[in-house]
Amino acid sequence: MQVLTSAVELWYPLDMRIGILGSGLIGTDLLTKLQRHPDLDVAVMAGIDPASAGLARALSFGVLTTADGLAGMLDLVPDIEVVIDATSATAHLESSPILRQRGIFCIDLTPAALGPAVVPTVTIADLLAAEEVNLVTCGAQATVPIVAAASAVADVAYAEIVSTIASRSAGPGTRANIDEFTRATARALVSVGGAAIGKALIILNPADPPITMRNAVHLEIASGNAADVEEAIRDAVERVRAYVPGYRLANPPAVDGSRFSIVVEVEGAGDFLPKYAGNLDIMTCAAVRICEVVAAAVAA
User: Fold this and answer.
1) What is the mean pLDDT of residues 190-205?
2) Is 138 a catalytic residue?
3) In this structure, are 292 and 242 located in the same domain?
4) I need a labelling partner for 3 at 20 to 30 A (CA). Which of 39, 73, 209, 293 fits?
């Protein structure tokens, strides 16, 4: 089974039924991205509020919609193949066993974290064997590629990241799960990024106008060549940029002996969410990238 590494390799038509569960801001941004994609499309969007702006937008795109949640989605499109869950951790705990029982692959954007953690440039080759995957956190999506790149060429004894996001881009779910955000991100720095020890912090910045997401990555290298680490980091940034165009190095990697400091910014594409909401955009971009790989594997 072929696993593709970049969207430009999708040279043949794809035919996969994708459902979006959740018609809020993230679900609507996903809808917008997928509808613009040359090879992917949304078969159905499900929410729980009939007056949802997301459902209205989906209707305007000619997408099937339901306000009856997952049950309504499965009634409308019983042969759905992939569901992207953009609801809540509590709701996902109820949806996950239903999707598993029906053999529907799920991309989980909630903090439920029932499936293996996936960061497209690092672990995407492993996702096809899973029943569902989770995208961890925006902080992990932004920083794990950097840590993993360094770990591939050196021994990373310690990795610490600080994600600073615009307060306006942090909804009730993010605010209610700050502790879980830090724990999940720190775990991913180790389990996916390869660091021996990981630590994560998040800062909600109330500045007006809102700031662009910034992620500081601090590494302690136990052994390895500094030039190799810097080259690996720059390569990792370019690979993330392939599916998150607003991802960039804010400054060259700073090296002080065995310590490396890297700052990456994430500007949103402005598809539906504001451009300052790079923390949300990197999650929806990762979900689209996973859909590309799964669809290509199905087509192959």
Assistant:
1) 97
2) yes
3) no
4) 73
Q: Choosing from 106, 138, 285, 291, which is the catalytic residue?
A: 138
The CATH code of the domain that includes 168 is: 3.30.360.10
Closest-CA residue to 188 (of 118, 253, 287, 102): 118
- Judge whether 283 and 109 are in contact, CB under 8 Å: yes
Residue 102, CB half-sphere, CA atoms under 13 Å: how many?
A: 19
Please compute the mean of the pLDDT values over residues 152-158 and round it to a whole number.
98
Q: Is the Cβ–Cβ distance between 128 and 168 less than 8 Å?
A: no
Please choose, from the candidates 108, 143, 126, 117, the residue with its C-alpha nearest in 3D space to the C-alpha of residue 261: 143
**pLDDT-derived band at 295, boundaries 50, 70, 90:** confident
Using the structure block, give the residue that is written with the tokens 């440039």.
121
213 shares its domain with 118: no
Under the banding of pLDDT at 50, 70 and 90, the label for residue 126 is: low
Least confident of 9-23, 85-99, 149-163, 277-291: 9-23
Least reliable range by pLDDT among 74-83, 166-175, 197-206, 218-227: 166-175
For the chain, the domain total comes to 2
Whether pTM exceeds 0.85:
yes
